[in-house]
Amino acid sequence: MSAGLTVSFAAISLGAAFGVMSGRGALAGMIGAAVIPIIASTLGGTRLQASGPTAPMTAVSALIIAFAYDHFPDRTLAEQFVTLILS
After folding, report:
1. Are 36 and 45 in contact (CB under 8 A)?
2. Residue 33 burial (CB < 10 Å; 0-12/13-18/19+)?
3. What is the pTM of this model?
4. What Cα–Cα distance (Å) separates residue 57 from each residue in 18, 37, 51, 53?
5. DSSP per-residue codes, 55-70
6. Rounded mean pLDDT of 7-26?
7. How high does pLDDT run on average in the chain?
8. How many Cα neighbours within 13 Å face the side chain of 64?
9. Sign of the CA dihedral 85, 87, 16, 33?
10. E strands, the chain, where?
């Protein structure tokens, strides 16, 4: 029960951040974060499955990688920057 609450708090706050980042507002992001697990559990899954707003994180990761390769002339420094930021 406590793990589920922890995951839900993280998903709601992450959803709010992605909602603000998209320009739709925090409430839209929180609603999206709440709808994702409902759809995932309706379509099937296991008791240990945790669904959340992770797809927008792909776009954030792509922006970080693009920034690193544009601003660091040495590929090694760019890869180290990406590893530092994403870890």
Report:
1. no
2. buried
3. 0.55
4. 9, 16, 13, 8
5. HHHHHHHHHHHHHHHH
6. 84
7. 81
8. 15
9. positive
10. none
Estimate to the nearest angstrom the gap between the alpha carbon of 41 and the chain centroid.
19
Res 16: pLDDT: 87
Residue 47: phi and psi, rounded to 5, are: -65, -25
Residue with tokens 């296991």: 46
Average confidence (pLDDT) over 61-68: 83
Identity at 48, one-letter amino acid code: L
Query: Which pair of structure tokens corresponds to residue 41?
Result: 């559990």
What is the residue type of 57? M
- Structure token digits, residue 25: 């507002």
Q: Measuring CA to CA, how many Å separate 50 from each of 18, 22, 37, 39?
A: 18, 23, 7, 12
Mean pLDDT, range 39-46, rounded to an integer: 80
Does residue 14 or residue 51 have the better pLDDT?
14
pLDDT value at residue 55: 66
